[in-house]
Amino acid sequence: MSGRTLRPRVLVVGGGPGGYVAAIRAGQLGLETVLVEAGRPGGTCLTRGCIPSKAIIHAADLFAETSRAAAQGGHLGIRLAAPPTLDLAATMRWKDGIVDRLSNGVTALLRRAQVTVLKGWASFADAKSCTVETAEGPVKIEPEHVILATGSLPVELPSLPFGGDVLSSTEALALTELPRTLAVVGAGYIGLELGIAFAKLGVRVALVEAAERILPLYDELLTRPVLDWLHAHDVELHLQARAGGRSARGLDIETPLGDRFAIPAEKILVTVGRKPNTQGWGLETMAIEMDGRFIKVDERCATSSRNVWAIGDVTGEPMLAHRASAQGEMVAEIIAGKRRRFDPVAIPAICFTEPEIVTVGVERADENHVVGQFPFMANGRALSMEAGDSGGFVRTVAEKGSGRIVGLQAVGRHVSELASGFVALIEMGATLEDVAGMIHAHPTLGEAVHESALKALGHAIHV
Amino acid sequence: MGRYLFRLPDIGEGVTEAEIVAWHVQPGARIREDDNLADVMTDKATVEMTSPVDGTVTAVHGEVGAMLAVGAVLVELEVEGEGNAPAQAEPGASVEPPAPPSAATGESRVEAAPAVAPERTSPAQAAPRTAPPPEKSRAVAGRVDIPIGPRQVFAAPATRRRAYELGIPLQFVPGTGPGGRILPSDLDDFIASGGMARAPGGLAPRTGGEDVKIVGLRRRIAERMQEAKRRIPHIAYVEEVDVTQIEALRAEMNARPDEGQPKLTLLPFLIRALVRALPDFPQVNARFDDDEGVLHVSAGVHVGIATQTPGGLMVPVLRHAEALTLAEIAREIARLSAAAREGTAKREELSGSTITITSLGPLGGIATTPVINHPEVAIIGPNRIVEKPVVQGQFVSVRKVMNISSSFDHRIVDGYDAASFIQALKRLIEHPALIFMGDGA
């Protein structure tokens, strides 16, 4: 391979959910495509983000359920002869198995789309000259189009550099032994998802958050059931608190009143955000206009440099895999000559906390909106799967007058699966009357969507 | 305290009504004597209506654009002392005698600045959408949803995509679905109706627009043009004139000007030629009162000079052109057109012409069909001067040539006379010495 120069139509830098989707779609459209990825195809999402965390969360759920059955002498009539034990290394192997399957699947899909995958680091000398350091030596690439999909990296705190007992989410998802105590810095969705999972696995978890409340970006009503869960499960919560450095006893924190003390922490998980991955690969040589920390793109994901495109986390918020994928698919089609733009009405977001939160579109209604809210407490399916008592609900926000649905949120166990329905209703321009006129399967959690729309129309049946 | 009614004064001979073009006061305003109350337009002059008294405005009558009869109440004032009218039992109810139908009097109490209902920003006016990285303030790890609001078109993704591919801004497509949702069939209908962009290259139809109220000078022009075209059967005549000699003369005079001589354009020469030709065609230098069936033939030559001003076309009048030298004509034209452009022309400077010249100058094309300045019977429109080859005997030479367009009132001027008049003009222009023979110009 060494000394070779490739001149493909498309070079995709980064094999995450943005990059690999762009590459597959480009390949499907008959564009000669090269994908450069130093790690495994799948990127953060698949190898150290969404998928492994959800696997761990599932395992933690199961462990918590069985532990509870054992501890209480039975749950729902199910008894365990002995308390379950956890072999975290085995759990991680199971999780890695899932990651392997998916990553191999992506590799196969790329191959089927006739995408050339180069394993190595890309480095640009200018916008159209890239060198990839592969195990077999450098490969030069001079593509017609470049799609930058370099993603994002966890943000480090100066007082708590990653390494040793200070973990980013990546290391947390690769632990093979459970710490007895874990301090999580940052109560955003990543910190809460992982913190709750570790709490379910029996770790004593403390959350440290600088803002006034957990999940500060979400409407408070939606986060209350999560807060209730944290309280009910003795998860320590320090709000408006600042994390200092590591001390012999754990993590130093400062409370809003100025008190300083250490909370016990064998491990410290820092989840204070993610930053775009824009350094160290030659972005500065490409004459690309920035928008703050992010690469500036237009509605077609075009950068200021001709035939250079950027997608996903590196282009800004919301840093979500499904946004990156949608952009990747779109850019491939634009390069193939189709007329496309990125114009979603709303992008769904989910927190896999306990309980789960899903939100699409307008979350905070004002005087121009009408709102209908329906509690899972009144939903048969929720009660039958122990999802009725968590304080969960579905909320529908519609425009006054037109009745057009502009927001749908839910908090409750398993509500993440309602997300597709929510997005469909909003993107298709459904009105409250539309939802009222649809037959919702019984018994399902989705009935709560129907009821919340009826509530907004003023005639809910079951509440 | 007394009540004072300020009535629209007689602001010019023969003026029976005027148009309100601007208000400078509104009810509640404290004013002093000589403060400007409103601007009204008569014929073509805008006149300031100043207050004869100190007082407080209690009512104004008529919106901008309304016609008000002379003698109708324009402003009601509360003044010290007795005023000039009995106190009113019901404020706001008019005690005025009925005005002519076109006048706006009576109940119409109008604020000086009519309130405009705040417009909802329509999707068409919304700022273009920017792609993802919005909402800096929310840019923290977590999620930020793309805001959804009135700027969003209300259509399903497939409909939006198809519209975008076709270059159709969905904001302009009427939605017939629930809540105004744009259905695929709405898009089909829009395309079928011809609203579709012609090419996929991003060309898009522009729809919408605005309603502009025609007031002031524009309305005056509109009315007068309509009047002229409705009443006068126009006959148009175009002739080509060789201006080589007269241009050479002009250049020579400009190159070595007499003391105090302004720079000469072609216009003073044309006016001198007109003055010279008109005595042989007296019916052309005239005003036709068709109500009375009388043609007022004028001994003096009063030339209307059609002038483009910021507000629109105005026609100041060069009086007694027959008594002015070339230099005097040039100076008077400069003065009049400046006054017209600055809006300082007096009423008498804007009326009384007996024949009009209209020219687009260097903009002018090869021919125009000018509209007669009613109630005159003729208008002359010189066009652009061009150099072109002209056959002269056996030779072809380059000559400066200009077309003269002209329109005549066919009720008064027959085609034969019109042609004869323009031919006479042509002869004078082509042989400029003839213009000056026998006079002291």
Explain how this protein is built.
The complex is a heterodimer of chains A (463) and B (441). By secondary structure, chain A is of the alpha/beta class. Chain A contains 12 helices and 25 strands. In chain A, helix 3 runs antiparallel to helix 4. The relative contact order of chain A is 0.12. In chain B, helix 5 crosses helix 6 and helix 5 crosses helix 7. Chain B starts with a strand and ends in a 5-residue tail after the last helix. Chain B is flat, with a radius of gyration of 30 Å. In chain B, the strands form 5 sheets. Chain B has a 6-stranded mixed beta sheet with strand order 9-18-17-16-12-15, with helices on one face. In chain B, strands 1-8-6-3 form a 4-stranded antiparallel beta sheet, with no helix packed on it. A 4-stranded antiparallel beta sheet of chain B has the order 5-4-2-7, with no helix packed on it. About 14% of the residues of chain B have low confidence. Chain B has 441 residues and is an alpha+beta fold. Classes of the chains: A alpha/beta (463), B alpha+beta (441). At the A-B interface, strand 22 of A face helix 1 of B. Chain B: Belongs to the 2-oxoacid dehydrogenase family. Chain B: Its EC number is 2.3.1.-.
How are the SSEs placed, and which strands pair?
The complex is a heterodimer of chains A (463) and B (441).
Chain A: E1 5-6, E2 10-13, H1 19-28, E3 33-37, H2 43-48, H3 50-71, H4 88-112, E4 115-126, E5 129-134, E6 137-141, E7 145-148, E8 152-154, E9 166-167, H5 169-172, E10 181-185, H6 189-200, E11 204-208, H7 220-232, E12 236-238, E13 242-247, E14 250-254, E15 260-264, E16 267-270, E17 274-276, E18 290-291, E19 294-295, E20 308-310, H8 321-335, E21 349-351, E22 356-361, E23 369-375, H9 380-384, E24 393-399, E25 405-412, H10 419-427, H11 432-436, H12 447-457
Parallel strand pairs in A: 1-6, 2-3, 2-7, 3-4, 7-20, 9-16, 10-11, 10-16, 11-12
Antiparallel strand pairs in A: 4-5, 5-6, 8-17, 13-14, 14-15, 18-19, 21-22, 22-25, 23-24, 24-25
Helix pairs in contact in A: 1-4, 1-8, 3-4, 3-6
Chain B: E1 2-7, E2 17-23, E3 30-31, E4 36-42, E5 45-50, E6 55-60, E7 67-69, E8 73-79, H1 157-166, H2 184-195, H3 216-231, E9 234-242, H4 244-255, H5 266-277, E10 286-289, E11 294-297, E12 303-305, E13 307-309, E14 312-314, E15 317-318, H6 326-342, E16 355-357, E17 378-392, E18 395-409, H7 415-430, H8 433-436
Parallel strand pairs in B: 12-16, 16-17
Antiparallel strand pairs in B: 1-8, 2-4, 2-7, 3-6, 4-5, 6-8, 9-18, 10-11, 12-15, 13-14, 17-18
Helix pairs in contact in B: 5-6, 5-7
